[in-house]
TrEMBL record:
Keywords: DNA-binding
Source superkingdom: Bacteria
InterPro entries named in the record: ArsR-like_HTH, HTH_ArsR_DNA-bd_dom, HTH_Metal-responsive_Reg, WH-like_DNA-bd_sf, WH_DNA-bd_sf
Species annotation: Streptomyces luteogriseus
Domain HTH arsR-type: 3-98
Transmembrane segments: none
GO BP terms, alphabetized: response to cadmium ion; response to lead ion
Entries under Pfam families matching the protein: HTH_20
Protein name: DNA-binding transcriptional ArsR family regulator
GO molecular function, one term: DNA-binding transcription factor activity
Keyword Manganese: no
Gene3D superfamilies assigned to the protein according to its UniProt record, in alphabetical order: Winged helix-like DNA-binding domain superfamily/Winged helix DNA-binding domain
Length: 236
DNA sequence: AGTAAGGATGGAGACCTCGG
DNA sequence: CCGAGGTCTCCATCCTTACT
């Protein structure tokens, strides 16, 4: 009888949670940062509600999801930003070229909308996220050379733009998150989340349907051009 | 809307047999 | 002895049904 490495056992159990298409579909859906009901996720994953209930139980028990019950509804969301980062990092390992090809025009349109702009848990991603990250860097507001960090000018810019940077726990102020469509890092962390929240609250961008895709509004194009010098063509 | 129980199904691994 | 192929068993996943 050989003794097992506890760390290997824990890693295998964590990996097993990801190693199911239904659970993976749920985790990817929950990357939008919102709380979903069990029935919404069941429809999304294409399985029966009872089947999804079992999967949710495992994901909650495994610490990947947090649940909240309201009346007869069971809302679930990703447990925290670290789980979101893990899911996004794993998704980034899947080459876009190896991804399933769109089966029809609708899927193709949805895919291009996601590539154009989307939320990645609680921050902006896709070409929109990259354009904002590049603009912040070009203006000396974000430092990428030594790992993502806001410069003093960057802190001042967020303050002047009225975007509050509330530190919670040990979450870094700025962090790089690998973008799975652009294959480049975009801004995440407290600053990335605050910027995304501000963009949605002020109507710079709006969500498209029930997916994670977001669309920059005319007001958003003006704001991004005036504040960061982002040209609208960079967002298309 | 959500959960629990029970049964069906399919994949993976273990085991066995047989031929070269 | 070794590899191929067949069979069996276990387990994860899914569904239907009944129930809260």
């Amino acid at each position: 009888m050989t003794t097992r490495d506890p760390q290997a056992t824990a890693l295998a159990r964590l990996a097993a949670l990801f190693a199911d298409e239904t659970r993976a579909a749920c985790l990817l859906a929950l990357l939008d940062g919102r709380a979903w009901t069990a029935s919404e996720l069941a429809r999304h994953a294409g399985v029966a509600a009872s089947t999804l209930s079992e999967h949710l139980g495992r994901l909650v028990a495994g610490g990947l999801l947090a649940e909240e019950r309201q009346g007869r509804h069971r809302y679930v969301r990703l447990a925290d930003a670290r789980v979101a980062q893990l899911v996004e990092d794993l998704a980034a390992q899947v080459s876009p070229g190896a991804a399933v090809r769109p089966r029809n025009l609708r899927e193709s349109s949805a895919g291009s909308a996601m590539a154009r702009g989307r939320t990645c848990y609680d921050h902006l991603a896709g070409r929109l996220g990259i354009a904002v990250t590049d603009a912040l860097t070009a203006r000396g507001l974000l430092e990428q050379e030594t790992g993502f960090a806001l410069t003093d000018a960057g802190l001042a810019w967020f303050a002047s733009a009225g975007i509050g940077l509330e530190r919670r726990g040990r979450r870094p102020l700025a962090r790089a998150c690998l973008d799975w469509t652009e294959r480049r890092p975009h801004l995440a962390g407290v600053a990335g989340a605050a910027l995304c929240r501000h963009a949605l609250d002020t109507g710079w961008c709006v969500r498209i349907g029930s997916e994670r895709a977001v669309k920059v509004t005319a007001a958003g194009e003006r704001a991004l051009r005036d504040l960061l010098g982002v040209e609208s063509m960079e967002l298309r």
